[in-house]
Amino acid sequence: MTLALTVNGARRSVRVDPRERLTDVLRERLGLTGTKVGCEAGDCGACTVLLNGEQICACMVPAGRLGGADIVTVEGLAEDGRLSRLQAAFHAHGAAQCGICTPGMLMAATDLLRRQPRPTRDQAQAALGGVLCRCTGYLKIVDAVLAAAGGAPLPGADGVTPSTMPPGPPAGAAVGARLLRSDGVGKVTGAERFGADAAPEDALWLRAVRSPHARAGFTVGDLKPLHARYPGLVRVLSWKDIPGRNRFGIYPHLKDQPALAEGQVRFRGEAVLALVGDKETVYGIADGEVPIVWTPEPPLSGLDAALAPRAPLIHDAAPGNVLCEGHVEKGDLDSAFRTADVVVTGEWETSFVEHAYIEPEAGYARRAGERIEIAACTQTPYMDRDEMALVLGLKPEQVRIIPTGIGGGFGGKLDLSLQPLIATAAWLLHRPVRCIYSRPESMASTTKRHPARVRARFAAGRDGLLRAVDFEADFNTGAYASWGPTVASRVPVHATGPYYVPAMRAHTRAIYTNDTPAGAFRGFGTPQAALAHEGLMDELAERLGRDRLEFRLANAIRAGRPTNTGQVLRASVGMAECLQRLRPHWQAGLEEAGAFNKRREPRRRGMGIACMWYGIGNTSLSNPSTLRVGIARDGAVTLFNGAVDIGQGSSTILAQICADALGIPVELIRLVVGDTDLTADAGKTSASRQTFVSGKAAELAGRDLRAKLLALAGAPAHARLALDGATARVSWDGLTRGIRLDRLEAAPDALSPTGARLPDIVLIGNGTFDPPTTPQDQHGQGIPYATYAFAAQIAQVEVDLELGTTRVLHMVAAHDVGRAINPIQVEGQIHGGIAQGLGMALMEEYVPGRTDNLHDYLIPTCGDMPRIDSILVEDPEPLAAFGAKGVGEPALVPAAPAILGAIRHATGARIQRLPATPARVREAILAAGGAP
Ligand code: FES
Ligand code: FES
Questions:
Q1: CA 46–ligand 1 middle distance (angstroms)
Q2: Distance 101 CA to ligand 2 centre (A)
Q3: Bridge partners of 457?
């Protein structure tokens, strides 16, 4: 049918299938990809647009109902070529992190402000309740909506057009400034291209056929009838079509996951075949039409099944289904426990937690001669390049990874997902091939947070000091290794919490099961471990009759004291200061909760506190970053930055660091980000490493270019630099010399990673940094990380004793970040981390096959968020650029234990199985003898 409608004020006529969704009409037919798709089920709100003046989920509206409709999308918000006031407010407040939810949020907020020009905070929260955000914790979004409704100026964002960068501070003042995101305008206008937003016109579509069984053998029958029935089916790929090695995985010795299963599947959702053809065909073929004969077997689901004495092996190379173990010990543990005055023990169990990024995996691949280009969402371009070279049987230089915008990652886009499938198809067919995972497919097939079983024993003396810790944990790593070894090695180092303990032992195992593979998720196992160390610190404080904050402060690790691995941190150990800065909030919260509880309502309030430390970067492994900054003949400065910005703001802060190191205003820096043909390897965006590791590389690159410019002018180190078109002016001690950049030869070392000349670059600065670590010995002793971040958070909750429901009212987070390069981004990470910690504590539980959607799998909505106050402690790290460490993962780790501690304080209930659903809280209240 031909549809006539008005879109963003313009009359449009378009041919559609009446059954297709409005999202497809907008995105595929009209090219308006600002409207995003996160679920196609009405659950996420990413597709929110205005239909005849009211917000609706475009994925739920069939085209057949749209005749004469008036539709407004995010592309229609800008006014007279400038950001609308609402868009400018989102930009100014840092309300967009990854940005995939931002168009939906903006449309929901537009609807609100049209109906209610001066909304209250509660009204704003309610109006945004249908749009999910996994990054921001919602607070800055609500702030932005309220700011847009008020008349206050929007610093830096007022009057910004969709094509201009906001102005920055003067030279030398970028570090520490609340600079707006370098990529923020693209996010608030919907112009940023995510994995599903662009592909070559002639691209074929690919859809994987996945196993409905968690453990089964299978055979594939004759495919000719399927081809005959569906002429649009171009090819069906099986494992036999993989050109190189049908195995991938994070560690060189543990590449155990096939791109397409080879006759047996090890988890429900594993890819078996890939259908390639036109879109209607590959989505029109039902899985039941594909001739696969299954032989299901009983799956080993969960730790107990996999560890049972006669359990079959999931991988022959892993006896007992134990993938790997981790261990750290020091001191005389037996004697320390024997002589301690108080000993407490506990066991905790956690669930699979889904990343629930709003953008399902998406991208395309294209063959270019004897090279392959893969444009997809990823957190790790160079690792993808090297893995894809193995899968395709190519040299790494034959693979180009072009990261698209990434709509949230949190560790879940560190592993390969669709890349081996689209690249194999494009390679074999000499046609571009694209793929977009559905929400259920994304949830069923990609990695999760490891479910864990943690047992620990803590001992202290009557003097209030820790004596010993004994800790063991098993992590369910699912069917394939992924990041299991990383979790097993990181957790023992952190197992005691950020406290000085004279004697300790920590042992971990990663266990194969027939569950969904578990991988990297914000914290690499330390959030699970923190439940134990913080739960037992509370118990010890209680048994010793001490205040929970003061007990932690007395034991907090400090500069000069050895860690569990014998490492002596000399500087940037801000644990004690975090606790000291929280003290007044803690005392006020305790008083307030006590006063509330005197009312004898069925609701009780409680306060909880938790600490954490987090080693930045890889554990005892090299993890270098290289960044380069070049100046061109016309004076343009370009930062070639291979660190993928997954929403946390690394592109902006690396530019801030580089600008100050070079000595020019940050707005003069242009960015090339992440393309493996143009940028050097800056490692993966994980382990909170980009600020520390790539930040140092950005500083070194800036200083190197500055040194080269000053040397040309014969200027001393304190000289000032100014760029005036094709002339660089260098001034010092009353002298000024101009360097005519347009007269310089091309820099001989200005070559891309493929050896191509970087156009017009006449000088280039190089920066490489690899944090100094050492391997750990058989007792785990060594220097696993060059530096640690520290944090403490307090939570106030209100629990309904009869219903078991928990509401988090307020959190205060104190984080030692070394130096806050950009406080807006740091606060954003803290808010987002707390939101994910709240979800882990209270509601998130992924069950394979039962919660593969955003309706049954609950994540916090706008209305679930408490007030959050952030305290930034700046204890500079001498190794780091301007002292800055990371905050991405530290923000999440203490949130759940602080909330559980608050529930216990309010009710006496000791929650040891996560999440703390109302039923579990109610049961724990009853087990504790009812309300205190
Ligand atoms: S894509 Fe429409 S609600 Fe999620
Ligand atoms: S900014 Fe909201 S989902 Fe990423």
A1: 5
A2: 5
A3: 345, 470
Sign of CA dihedral 755, 758, 764, 766: negative
For residue 610, list its beta bridge partners: 793
Q: What is the mean pLDDT of residues 75-96?
A: 94
Exposed e or buried b for every residue in 202-231, given b needs 16+ CB within 10 A? ebbbbbbbbbbbbbbebebeebeebeeebe
Indicate the burial class of 735 (C-beta count within 10 angstroms; 0-12, 13-18, 19 or more).
Answer: exposed
Contact 344, 379 (CB under 8 A): no
**Tokens standing for residue 515:** 């569950």
Give the span between the Cα atoms of 543 and 541, in whole angstroms.
Answer: 6
| CA 28 – ligand 1 centroid, Å | 16
Question: Residue 595: which region, alpha, beta or left (left: phi > 0; alpha: psi -120 to 50)?
Answer: alpha
Mutate to test the pocket of ligand 1, among 27, 59, 358, 859 (most ligand atoms within 8 A of CB): 59
User: Closest residue (by CA) to atom 2 of ligand 2?
Assistant: 133
Per the DSSP assignment, residues forming a β-bridge with 810 are: 796, 867
Region of residue 566 (phi > 0: left; psi between -120 and 50: alpha; otherwise: beta): left
CA triple 124-129-135, angle to 5 deg: 100
How far apart, in Å, are the Cα atoms of 910 and each of 349, 544, 797? 13, 18, 14
For residue 161, pLDDT over 80 is answered with: no
pTM over 0.90: yes
697 lines ligand 1 (CB under 6 A): no
Q: How far apart are CA 648 and CA 699, in angstroms?
A: 19
Which structure tokens are listed for 660?
């100050």
DSSP state of 694: I
- Per residue in 746-776, pLDDT (tens digit) is 999 999 999 999 989 999 999 999 999 999 9
